[in-house]
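Q: What does the predicted 3D structure of Transglutaminase-like domain-containing protein look like?
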Amino acid sequence: MRLLIPLLLALLLPAARADGLNICYHYGCSRHAQFDISDEEHDWLAARMSRSDSAASEREAVADAVLTLYRIAARDTPIWQDKGGNFRDGPAQGRMDCVDHSSNVTTFLNYLQRQGWLKFHRAAPPEWRAPWILDLHYTGVLHDNAANQDWAVDTWFKDFGEPPVVVPLSVWMTGYEPPAVSEPVRQASKSKEGNAP
């Protein structure tokens, strides 16, 4: 009887919801970790997404949600050390390339979709571009249902803690880089090339 009461209480009490998501890092998704989203974080995300009343405002909410999910994941992983691009973070344990970023963003977009929070969009598979043959780059993608338009959701360009770049995929495919980071990324690339044996 003593064991039966706790068992009955466990069955009657609402189960604590724990959302667990995978995150990958260290270039090419060579390292993986799980992180949990607390009830309070889930409620904040739900409230933020619910304020969207148009496709444009939903994309803004998605950018906030992606940034928040990265910050949650950084509590238990070293991804907070990631710098924009591929060369500025050196040997940092939490460094991420575009493969890591596009995989993580796709995981986050699918999570938002599973929660029923996307009213104007749906998560789409990652896309890639190679406008200068060797300049291969990947991004997460959000599909605008009404406009039948894809949007790049790219967290690779900027340092950890910055919101993702959200631009039409057709623009991103042309080799788009946000103006604020274009020059430092190019300079870092040239510096790295100059030091190669």
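A (community wiki): The structure tokens above were generated from the sequence. Helices lie at 4-12, 39-50, 55-73, 98-114, 169-172, 179-194. The chain is about 40% helix and 20% strand.
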